[in-house]
Amino acid sequence: MTSSHGAHDTHAASGSAPADDNHLQGGGGPNPPQAPVAQPGESLAREAWRRLRHNRAAMASLILLVAMAIICIAGPWLLPWDLAEVDWENFGTGPTLANQHWLGTDANGRDLLTRTLYGGRVSLSVALVATLVSLVIGVLYGAISGYVGGRTDNLMMRFVDIMYSLPFMFLVILLMVVFGRNIFLIYAAIGAVEWLDMARIVRGQTLSLKRREFIEAAHALGVRDSKIITRHLIPNSIGPVIIYVTLTVPKVILLESFLSFLGLGVQEPLTSWGVLISEGTSNMQGAPWMLIVPAAFLAVTLFCLNFLGDGLRDALDPRTR
Amino acid sequence: MLSYIAKRLAMAIPTLLIVITASFFLMRVAPGGPFDGERQLPPEIEANLMAAYHLDEPLPMQYLRYMGNLLQGDFGPSFKYKDFSVTDLIAQGFPVSLELGGLAILLALLLGIPMGVMAALKRNTTVDYLLMGTALGGIAVPNFVIAPLMALFFGVILGWLPVGGWNGGALPNLVLPVVALAIQQIAYIARMMRASMIEVLGSHFIRTARAKGLNERQVIWRHALRPAMLPVLSYLGPAIAGIITGSVVIEQIFGLPGIGRYFVQGALNRDYTLVMGTVVFYGILIVLMNLIVDLLYSLFDPQIRYDD
Amino acid sequence: MTNTTPFPRPVRHHSLFKRAALTACLLTIAPLSMAATLRIDNGAEPGTLDPQKTSGVWETRIVRELFETLVSQDATGELVAGLASRWDLSDDGLTWTFELRDDAQWSDGEPITAGDAVFSLRRLLRPETTAHNANLYYPIENARAINAGEAAPETLGARALDDHHLEIQLERPTAWFLQAIAMPEAAPLPEHVLREQDERWVIPGRTVVSGAFTLSEWSPQDHITLEKNPQFYAADDVALDEAIFYPLEEASAALNRFRTGALDISYTSVPGGRFEQLRRELGETLRVNPMVAEYFYMFNLRPESPLSDIRVREALNLATRREVITDQLLGMGQTPSYWLVPRVTAGGAEGALPTAQMAMDERMARARELMQAAGFGPNNPLTLTLRYNTLEDHKKIAVALAAMWKPLGVDVALINTEAASHYAAIREGDFQLARYGMVATIDDPYDFLGSYTTGGSSALSSGYHNADYDRLVEQSSETIDPSARAELLTRAQQHLLDDYALLPLYDYVNTALVSERVHGWAPTPMDVHPLRYISLEE
């Protein structure tokens, strides 16, 4: 395993801490200026990209992820089998070179590799979209709630409590009743619940950050609230946010299989990694490849995401700039 | 502080009212009813059932009837489990779920936090990779895969532990389900802990503390740990509410009498009263847990105050 | 009754009686710690143990132990004397007379009387009781009107001639009525207890029962414990002291527990994907038997549905390779079906789809012709939606059907939903093809054929209507003579099949794990296994 932070072991530069010297000195200690300079967006991104490029593990992961996406998109065209094609001679046969089912077939005699690649299209796009939705809504919502505080915070967080408490299954069924069967609904439904945790985490970070001198200084200097939130609060919460994103992806991919169980997710013959894994689980002892193949694709994706996440975190850390 | 708690508790009432109302109508939009099953009932008999449960009344009427009963603390009888009231079912199952979930959370904190801290301290060493690789495994392998494997291996093949059953909560029966429940939480907590620990360790005040010659252990456990706990704390509020209300997967695989199944099966069976019971119960837990977390914030980070 | 079950039904239980009696004798001498406890996995948590409110086998399995019926079932499923020692039907087929045993007592020592039986039947038909199977008793005079709330329960055609004689007056002769009387719903209930409390009365410590066992513990989702009822009239023959029922839902969980010896019997179906392997490993303890239940697809026959065209229905039936489904996909011993009434059902309903005997390529050629005649083909495909409820096996079958019909130029869109939505769609006729399973309530073809008669549930859902069929089913129900009845049933079923009203796939099997320690357990088509015939080896 290569280092995920090989290129730079920084954090030595001055930076803001999630908590400050009050812990250490009972308050009143010297607080050095620590406002990260807000830079124009483009150079900020370019800077982060430069850092990321120097992180070998993150780059390798990024390349592998892109490759995974390309294989899932293009692969099915190159394989000899179709998604729904049944090989009546080979029901649930194991991986072999003999019959062109290199990774075996499922219980219906369909090629497992083909299905796993098709499933990857669904799972990767669900993961991408649902995670983005949860990221955007959750981070903004949490940051605003925490920063504005007071009654607004209270109201916004009670809305989050309400969303947590509503029975998810009926929310999903309602979506299905209102909008019909539509794969984009999966994204919507998943995004709609996954932003809640993110909002609570970012709010927690914001509550802690907003009394810091660099925020109060920016405030005193007349920097607009929206700018404080996007330029100071969010970048300084980026660590937990990125980690939580990498934790959200597997959750989202498996949640999708639950939606398919309800009838909202993908419909046969289309499939997804989550569906393949839960199918594989019921055949785990008799036909282990049905579980191992999709699980391996998922595991590789998660490992890559993990390293990429760590790399991104370092690259985006405002204190190392 | 006390006035803040009072204000929050007062807010809980309208919050729960919205949850109850929204859930009630949400549930009734879903196709199918409590008597839709493989055996289709003759129209006369279905009419008798609808009348007995007042389902033949207009929906707003039913809502008022439900709220009226609820105000008297009556959640009504379950549609599916006719010999028990919803209150009975939750009261009998919750202690089981609480015990399993509570132990799992405890285990997750006891293992997850040190794992995360250790990984952060030994960042980019073999120890880090080993710990985080293990954690990642816990995240990537869903519990519906790991739990049956554990039951098979430790229960059937090795015969060390019972493969399932509650048995009044005997310790050997607890081990497998608690571990299965905890695995994912350990992984989550370890990952989050590592990330925020790295952040805190790089911060100014920790470097100041080190410069002052405080020994490393003091720096970490006294000064770094608490602020680093913030994201974990935020995550734990809803997570605890979820875990102590049981997991349908774990309950089914190990045959345990918890309440996790009611959340899923109540909805699948359109057991309206049971669904509402679980919604109210879970809603109360969410409100309480998030309140506790918000209060703990100021304990972990004195700068967080809610007095404005 | 014509017995069509493929397995022998010798009167073997007499020797079991002896064995049971012997065990009971030994137990009276043996120390208390030798108590025989049978541990059963029941497959699900009972929703109720009120005999008149049950809706499934996971409830009746326990209820039958608590409440003895007038006519009971023995270990092989044959109807035998229960609380009634003998019964008689009048020549016009309208009046049943039951003579009750004079030594039968409730568990509180009160005598069980004909009055209790009348009370029970009236309660069963009251609308407020909401009995799911009340319609089985509609042949009784005034029963339907009472159940619809249009008549008082006292007007029911059932009366106690004296403490030990019950008379039931029917509106029309009904061939399967004795089967209904053998259902737990019709078991006499303790009037003296229920007059005090009618709701939630089957509770440990409060329940007064008539069966071989009493209810001693009920911990929801955990276990239910039954104890031997010393007041039971045949208590001397009951070998078990105790039976514990666990509500395991997960097949692999039940299997694991069975393998570690924590269960003696498991009724949760075994994991499908590993059946072959399990059969090798478990040997004789894995019991697979035909069951009175049918797996089929319902066609929507309404004019706006493409399946209103009989040629399309015939073609789909022709192109379905049922052997592939039963042997390759399921492989538990299910048998391909070309009919609605499972072959194991008593009553002798024969008949099959006309296409059953054709060779496969012949069938495909004919199917193509039919589709072409109906205006469909590879260039003008027929698009069909097929609904199934979420379950691994249902999915496998749906996927295979879509692939089998593809060569006919049929594009199938598969729609899976969770069960409640699925059955709601069927009830409302909102489907083209829908998976359906019918599990018998009584071991009689009427249970299946009746549902496709006008007003029956399947007819309401599918839009099927055939006056000749209705008439034949009604006649068969009113014909008491077994062979004349069998012929009518066969003719009725053939009408339904000639109309290609449905797509039958297979006759179900039930699976059970029965430890070698258990004696007296026999396979039965209705999956009824009274514990009073079961004993445990030390």
Automatic annotation (TrEMBL), chain A:
Family matches, as CDD domains: TM_PBP2
Topology within the bilayer: Multi-pass membrane protein
Keyword Cell membrane: yes
Domain ABC transmembrane type-1: 120-309
GO CC list: plasma membrane
Transmembrane segments: 57-79, 122-143, 155-178, 184-202, 241-266, 286-309
Protein's name in the database: Oligopeptide transport system permease protein OppC
From TrEMBL, chain B:
Keywords, sorted A to Z: Cell membrane, Membrane, Transmembrane, Transmembrane helix, Transport
Gene3D superfamilies: MetI-like
Annotated compartments: Cell membrane
Pfam families in the cross-refs: BPD_transp_1, BPD_transp_1_N
Domain of life where this protein originates: Bacteria
Gene Ontology CC entries for this record: plasma membrane
Residues annotated as domain ABC transmembrane type-1: 94-297
TM region positions: 9-30, 100-121, 133-158, 170-190, 232-254, 274-297
InterPro entries: BPD_transp_1_N (IPR045621), MetI-like (IPR000515), MetI-like_sf (IPR035906)
A Gene Ontology BP annotation from the UniProt entry: transmembrane transport
PROSITE patterns noted in UniProt: ABC_TM1
Protein's membrane topology: Multi-pass membrane protein
Similarity section: Belongs to the binding-protein-dependent transport system permease family.
Name this polypeptide is given: Oligopeptide transport system permease protein
Automatic annotation (TrEMBL), chain C:
Stored InterPro entries: Peptide/Ni-bd (IPR030678), SBP_5 (IPR039424), SBP_5_dom (IPR000914)
Localisation per UniProt entry: Cell envelope
CDD domains the record matches: PBP2_OppA
GO BP, one annotated term: peptide transport
Domain Solute-binding protein family, chain residue ranges per copy: 78-456
Matches recorded under Pfam families: SBP_bac_5
Signal sequence extent: 1-35
Gene Ontology MF terms: peptide transmembrane transporter activity
Keyword Glycoprotein attributed: no
Domain of life, per lineage: Bacteria
GO cellular component labels: ATP-binding cassette (ABC) transporter complex; outer membrane-bounded periplasmic space
UniProt-listed Gene3D superfamilies: Dipeptide-binding Protein, Domain 1, Dipeptide-binding Protein, Domain 3, Periplasmic binding protein-like II
Record key words, sorted: Signal, Transport
Family: Belongs to the bacterial solute-binding protein 5 family.
Protein name per its UniProtKB record: Oligopeptide transport system substrate-binding protein
